[in-house]
Structure formats: structure tokens, C-alpha cells
What we know:
The chain is α+β, with helices and mostly antiparallel strands.
Amino acid sequence: MSQLTHINAAGxxxxxxxxxxxxxxxxxxxxAFVTMKAETLAMIVDGQHHKGDVFATARIAGIQAAKRTxxxxxxxxxxxxxxxxxxxxxxxxxxxVRITAxxxxxxxxxxxxxxxxxxxxxxxxxYDMCKAVQKDMVIGPVRLLEKSGGKSGDFRSESHD
Length: 161
């Protein structure tokens, strides 16, 4: 098993020094789900929500969250992201929204946390916009689907579609 990189020899949390690492292209893809009643999903899809376009708002929130991950998650580095893409898809058969987020950069550290944060905040935004209609929506699972680049190499979830 790998060592925890955010714990130093004294057992204290610290920010990893990445200054000696080589810049490489790094990309990560994450997903999140928001499950709700069919009526709530139909309201979103039909554009009938009184607050406006739920998907557009969630997309912007996810993009903004990826850019600010370093402010939200302790010990994350501020990153110069070259791409953040958030896609939302209504899965009517499952009465849910699937959110996928992709983050990319050329740099010294990975973008997994940025992709996970983008997907999570987009899901939270859907919940926030729709909570007046339905309070028992469920967020989850949230997970990393794949990542590429860097010293640790590539990763792809076994159950990735």
C-alpha cells in the first residue's frame, strides 16, 4: 500500500512539496448522482423550475468549484486548470441526474480533487435549487472514474462505463 503523502515523518499533516516534480498533462473524470422523484426530474427537464435552468446553474457551480478546490480542501494546491467540463444527464429510467466532471491541466500535481469537487458541488446545487419541491433527494455515489498522468500512472474504475 502507498504511503500517505500529506503526513510528514512526525505524523503531522502538511502540504506536499511538488516543486521537483515534472510538469505532465493530467486529467481526471468524476461522477455524482442526484436521485429524486420522477415529477421533480420532469420539472427540471421541462424547464418548469421557477428558479430557472437547473442544469445551467449546476454546470456553472461545478466549474467554479473546481477552480476553487484549493480554498475548500485543506492541503490542496492552487492549480491553473486548462479545462473544466461539467455535463448533466437526466436518467429518467432511474429518476436521477448523472453529473460527470472532467478537469485537465499541465502541471506537477493531479486534478482528481478538482473533478470530484466539481461533480459534488453541481449535485449540491441541484439539491439547493430543488429542495423547495423535494427535500428527500439523495446525492451519491460520488466517485473518481479515471485519472491519467503523473508519477502514480493511470487509473480507471473497474465499474466505469
